[in-house]
Amino acid sequence: MTLLNLCIALPLVAFVGLLLVPRGRPEVSRWLALASSLVIFAASLGLVAGFERTSAGFQFETDVPWIRVPSIHYHVAVDG
Fold first, then answer.
1. b/e string for 43-77 if b means 16 or more Cβ within 10 A?
2. Rounded distance, CA 51 to CA 45, Å?
3. How would you class 3 by CB atoms within 10 Å of its CB: exposed for 0-12, middle for 13-18, buried for 19 or more?
4. For 45-56, how does the pLDDT look when each residue is reduced to its tens digit (9 = 90+)?
5. Helices (H), ranges, the chain
6. What's the pLDDT at 48?
């Protein structure tokens, strides 16, 4: 899993985690939201640090066939 995929998946994981917090515990929701935001921010800093400005083309690329017919792929990348 590339760092870009991690930056895409972490908010979804945090969302599911926040859905599981009981409604009567708002302080837990706040702390979990803060912690997940900080983790996602740290992961995005890794994208900035790993980005090569002199390189042409896609970086952090993932291209995985998803559905064979029609040809549908999960394709994400950073193009700078």
1. beeebeeeeeeeeeeebbeeeeeeeeeeeeeeebe
2. 10
3. middle
4. 998 888 888 888
5. 3-19, 26-50
6. 87
Per-residue pLDDT, 6: 93
Whole-structure pTM value: 0.78
Name 57's Cβ contacts closer than 8 Å, sequence gap at least 6.
Answer: 79
Q: Could you tell me which residues come within 8 angstroms of residue 54 by beta carbon, excluding any fewer than 6 positions away?
A: none
Residue in this structure with the two tokens 């995005």, named with its chain if needed: 44
Counting other chains too, the contacts that 64-68 makes at CB distance below 8 Å and 24 or more residues apart are none
